[in-house]
C-alpha cells in the first residue's frame, strides 16, 4: 500500500493559528495516513499530540514528532526529531555539521523551501547554506505548496533534479507548511510504500534512503524494469479533491534532455536505451510535449537508475 505523508506542519506552539488537536482533526478529515509536527525551533507540541493520540486510541492517524530549524541562513525541516539537537553553532558554510548531528540523534533531515524569498522580505526563509556533502541530507522539499510555483518551487525541482542526475542519493518530498486550516485539494503530498500496520517513521526512512518517494497531487507513476525496457503505470492514491484529466503525459528527464510519452491509457513501456543511466519521471495533465507547463504537473516519481 501507499501511505500519504504530510511532513511540514505548525501549531500555535510556534507561529500557527491552530492548536495541536485542531491539527490532528484537520489531517484526519482529509484522509492523511501520517503527519509530522514541525514547529519552529521548539518541540513543545510533541507531548501534547502524544497525549491526545494515546488517550484517544480510536484515532488511526499516525504522527511523526519533529521540528523545523529556523535560522538566518535557511530552514532545515526534520519530520522526525525526538531528541532536541542544539544548533547555536550553525555554520552557513559547514551546514553538514548540524545535519550530521541530527542524523546521529535518529532524525530525518530535509531542506525546506530552498528558494523561498529571503532578504529583505523574510530573512532566513531562503536556503543560503552551502552544502557540499549531501550524505546526511535525506530530502529536498521540492514543492512547498503555499509558495509561488515558478519563482520558488520550480527552482527547487530543478535543483533536486540536478543533484539526482549527478548521482546524489537525495529524495524528493513536498510540504504544506501548514499554519492554519488550509485546503489540501490539488496540493502536492508525499507518498511512500508501507504496510497497513507498519511503523510510518521506519517506512519513511527506508523510502528516503532508497529515493522511493512520490510527490503528487493524487496520481502516482509506478515503474519497473522488465528486461530491456521500463514499464510505467498509473496508480490512483485516492487523494481527496484530486481532479482527473482526460489525457496524461509522462516525461523522462535525463542528462541529455527530456523525452515525452503518452500515458493516457494508464500504462506504457520505454526502452532502456531511451533512458540512459539516470532518469527522473514526471506526470503531467495533457498531451505529450517536452515543454509542458508546470501548472499541469501532477507527480514527480522516484528516479530510475540503470547504471551497471
Can you describe this structure?
The protein is of the alpha+beta class and 308 residues long. The protein has 2 domains: 2-214, Metal-dependent hydrolases (TIM Barrel, Alpha-Beta Barrel), CATH 3.20.20; 219-305, Immunoglobulin-like (Sandwich). 19% of the residues lie in helices and 31% in strands. It contains 5 helices and 18 strands. Strands 1, 2, 3, 9, 10, 13, 14, 16, 17 and 18 form a 10-stranded mixed β-sheet that branches. Strand 7, helix 4 (149-165) and strand 8 form a beta-alpha-beta unit. It is globular. The two termini are 29 Å apart.
Quick take:
It is built from five helices and 18 strands.
Question: How big a fraction of the residues is strand?
Answer: 25-35%
Radius of gyration: 19 Å
Task: Indicate the low-confidence ranges by residue numbers.
Answer: none
Query: Could you spell the SSE succession in H and E letters?
Result: EHEHEEEHEEHEEHEEEEEEEEE
CATH architecture of the largest domain: Alpha-Beta Barrel
CATH topology of the largest domain, by name, is TIM Barrel
Mean pLDDT across all amino acids:
96
Q: Helical content, roughly? A: 10-25%
| Cα separation of the termini | 29 Å
**General shape:** globular
Can you tell me the CATH class of the largest domain?
Answer: Alpha Beta
User: Mind describing the biggest β-sheet?
Assistant: 10 strands, mixed
Count of individual helical segments: 5
CATH superfamily membership of the largest domain: Metal-dependent hydrolases
Which structural class should the secondary elements be placed in?
A: alpha+beta
Amino acid at each position: 500500500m501507499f501511505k500519504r505523508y504530510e511532513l511540514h506542519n505548525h501549531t500555535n506552539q510556534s507561529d500557527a493559528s491552530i492548536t495541536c488537536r485542531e491539527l490532528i482533526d484537520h489531517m484526519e478529515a482529509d484522509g492523511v495516513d501520517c503527519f509530522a509536527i514541525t514547529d519552529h525551533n521548539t518541540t513543545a507540541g510533541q507531548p501534547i499530540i502524544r497525549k491526545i493520540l494515546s488517550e484517544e486510541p480510536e484515532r488511526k492517524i499516525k504522527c511523526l514528532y519533529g521540528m523545523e530549524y529556523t535560522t538566518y541562513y535557511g530552514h532545515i525541516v526534520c519530520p522526525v526529531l525526538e531528541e532536541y539537537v542544539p544548533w547555536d553553532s550553525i555554520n552557513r558554510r559547514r551546514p553538514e555539521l548540524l545535519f550530521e548531528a541530527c542524523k546521529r540523534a535518529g532524525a530525518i533531515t530535509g531542506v525546506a523551501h530552498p528558494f523561498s524569498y529571503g532578504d529583505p522580505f523574510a530573512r532566513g526563509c531562503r536556503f543560503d547554506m552551502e552544502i557540499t556533502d549531501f550524505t546526511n541530507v535525506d530530502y529536498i522539499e521540492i514543492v512547498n505548496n503555499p509558495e509561488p510555483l515558478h519563482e520558488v518551487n520550480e527552482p527547487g525541482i530543478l535543483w533536486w533534479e540536478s543533484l539526482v542526475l549527478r548521482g546524489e542519493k537525495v529524495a524528493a518530498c513536498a510540504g504544506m507548511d501548514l499554519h492554519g486550516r488550509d485546503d489540501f485539494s490539488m496540493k502536492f503530498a508525499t507518498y511512500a510504500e508501507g504496510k497497513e500496520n507498519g511503523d510510518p517513521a521506519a517506512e519513511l526512512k527506508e523510502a528516503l534512503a532508497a529515493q522511493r518517494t512520490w510527490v503528487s497531487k493524487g496520481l502516482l507513476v509506478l515503474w519497473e524494469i522488465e528486461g530491456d525496457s521500463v514499464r510505467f503505470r498509473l496508480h490512483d492514491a485516492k487523494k481527496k479533491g484530486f481532479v482527473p484529466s482526460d489525457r496524461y503525459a509522462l516525461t523522462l528527464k535525463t542528462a541529455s534532455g527530456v523525452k515525452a510519452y503518452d500515458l493516457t491509457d494508464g500504462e506504457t513501456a520505454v526502452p532502456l536505451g531511451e533512458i540512459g543511466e539516470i532518469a527522473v519521471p514526471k506526470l503531467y495533465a495533457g498531451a505529450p510535449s517536452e515543454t509542458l507547463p508546470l501548472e499541469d504537473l501532477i507527480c514527480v516519481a522516484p528516479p530510475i537508475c540503470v547504471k551497471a
